[in-house]
Amino acid sequence: MDENIVIENVESDHCKTMRMEAELKRDRLAQQREAWECLKFFEQTPRTEVQFFMRFETLPREDVTLLKSFYGVDTNDELFAMICRFWNV
């Protein structure tokens, strides 16, 4: 046996890409769970726009930021409209 042969454990570009895609999917799933937890904040709210708006005003700012980022909306008005659509209000 030749003692000068060195075998390296090299990860192919294909494997690296697959690993990165899996990580992104895992991150997206975690974000989705967090967004659902934020949306559940409205679960027991009476289904009127006024009641939802009053509840929206008490939604923690970090939850507002998370939901805006997750759903790709820019303003609180857009987010509120999206939440109302989600809950069929």
Describe the overall structure.
The protein has 89 residues and is an all-alpha fold. The protein has one domain. 64% of the residues lie in helices and 0% in strands. The protein contains four helices and no strands. The chain has helices spanning 13-39, 49-56, 61-71, 76-86. Helix 1 (13-39) packs across helix 3. It is rod-shaped, with a radius of gyration of 22 Å.
Give me some keywords for this one.
about 90 residues; mainly alpha; rod-shaped
Number of domains: 1
Structural class, please?
Answer: mainly alpha
- Helix and strand succession? HHHH
Q: What proportion of the residues form beta strands (DSSP E)?
A: under 5%
Instruction: Pick out the low-confidence regions.
Output: none
Distinct helical segment count: 4
Largest sheet report: none
Rounded to an integer in angstroms, the radius of gyration calculated over CA atoms is 22 Å
| Mean pLDDT score | 85
In angstroms, what separates the terminal alpha carbons?
Answer: 75 Å
The backbone outline, from C-alpha atoms, is: rod-shaped
Helix share bin: 55-70%
Q: How many beta strands in the DSSP annotation?
A: 0
